[in-house]
Amino acid sequence: MTIDATALILARAQFAFTVSFHFIFPAFSIGLASYLAVLEGLWLKTGKPLYLDLFKYWLKIFSVAFAMGVVSGIVMSYQFGTNWAVFSDKAGPVIGPLMAYEVLTAFFLEAGFLGVMLFGMNKVGKKLHFAATLMVALGTAVSAFWIISVNSWMQTPVGYEIGANGQFLPGPSWWAIVFNPSFPYRLVHTVIAAYLTTALVVGGVGAWHLLKDKGNAHARKMFSMAMWMAALVAPVQIFVGDLHGLNTLEYQPAKVMAMEGHFESHPDGAPLYLFGIPDQANQRLDYAIGIPKASSLILKHDPNAPLAGLDTIKRADQPPVAIVFWTFRIMVGIGFAMLGLGLWSLFARARGRLYDWRGLHRAAIVMAPMGFVAVIAGWATTEVGRQPFTIYGLLRTADSVSPLSAPAVAVSLAAFAIVYSAVFGVGVWYILRLMASSPHTGEMGVKRTERGPTRTAGITPGPAQGPRERPIDPPTGDA
């Protein structure tokens, strides 16, 4: 099969575009669902209305983010059949069941309890509603489990057999496929990233309202909770990221070489390059600024340990170094900025000035979107670093694409760009508008219309109510 090189590039660009749009919403909803569960649990435990107000405030934002995540995910999945039909055919027997498990477990769990969570607070008991919130939070985590298992298998494929027609078939144990070598590290690293992303958003919103009114009790509480999360979890994320990097060095050494900018091997200890301009054509790092032997110390825990470079990898098997090199540094840089923000908040808390230091509040606002930047940069490092393979070392990206023409892919990419920018631009604008409103006592939560939910079969007339009958759903009722 002859592949149009331009069509391949456009197909990769289209998938990167849709995944980038999609990824920011699950990264937010995973953390926000757990935050909502914590808020409702604290309300039930303490009885303080403030926690209920914050729960209803963030529930409105969660409902919009969750909906956009579902819609963007459905659109993205169709591309496996349209643009990546060869990959779907060859890898379908392995990844198909895993993605089906995600639907049958996580998506059904979320869908089954989401309505109760959004609209049922005044319809069911407090404990049952809390159980529904927990199930939605669990569903987001289970969804991450299956999706990351699929992605990790593509990064570190094990437990498969090659069929007569060249397909990847599951071996005798599905557990080897699900719990592949990179899966535990990638799962923990991704879920913690989602929690930190949410914490930065919550902290940024709290800081925004503190700048306007430092006596706002709701803003003070959300800002305090977010800063605790940044201070305590950011160091854990850095440690987990280090473990993930060591695992990547073992199973995907070329990716780590690109991350580090090591075009040449270092038999007596490799430097940690802080800055440089990769020149892949000439296989060198220009204007390099580094710390001698620090890379060997980090990756091998020995400053004199040898590290192989990209000079040991065939040119055809090398990933695009510039993208991997810079996205990795963006991710790591933001990670340390999160740590710095958390430590700053601890210092302010110890001085009794957490709600008074406007510089800290402004820094939290600047950091509010940085979690999204970090997860996109981390995704780019992981996925671009896997190139030129879709299934690492086994199936090349050029051999995975559908037999499409470049104009056809270009038209669909342009359509995606226009529609996504319009629809999700409006969605993000609405979320920002919700965040701009200050949380207050007596938050109403997600509102229903007077008529209730839309019926897919149309509006069915019900029996007329007599003067003594009590309305089923009072117009002023809010869930």
Count every helix, treating DSSP H or I runs of 4 or more residues as helices: 13
Helix-strand category: mainly alpha
Low-confidence stretches: 464-479
Q: How far apart are the termini? A: 57 Å
Mean pLDDT: 87
Q: State the share of residues found in helices, binned by percent.
A: 55-70%
Largest sheet: 2 strands, antiparallel
What is the topology, as strand order, of the major beta sheet? 1-2
What is the H-and-E element order?
Answer: HHHHEEHHHHEEHHHHEEH
| Record field, number of beta strands | 6
Beta content comes to 5-15%
Shape: globular
Cα-based radius of gyration, to the nearest Å: 25 Å
Descriptive terms for the model:
13 helices; mainly alpha; two-stranded antiparallel ribbon; two-stranded antiparallel sheet; 479 residues; 6 strands; disordered C terminus
What does this structure look like?
With about 475 residues, the protein is mainly α. It has a domain at about 195-395. It is about 65% helix and about 5% strand. The protein contains 13 helices and six strands. It has helices at about 5-45, 50-80, 85-120, 125-155, 175-180, 185-210, 215-250, 255-260, 295-300, 320-350, 360-365, 370-385, 405-435; strands spanning about 160, 170, 270-280, 285-290, 390, 395. A two-stranded antiparallel sheet has the order 1-2. Strand 1 (about 160) and strand 2 form a beta hairpin. Helix 1 packs antiparallel against helix 2, helix 1 (about 5-45) runs antiparallel to helix 4 and helix 6 packs antiparallel against helix 12. The longest helix is centred in the first third of the chain and has 42 residues, at about 5-45. The model is unreliable at about 465-479 (pLDDT under 50). One of its GO terms (molecular function) is heme binding. It is a multi-pass membrane protein. Belongs to the cytochrome ubiquinol oxidase subunit 1 family. Keywords: Cell membrane, Electron transport, Heme, Iron, Membrane, Metal-binding, Transmembrane, Transmembrane helix, Transport.
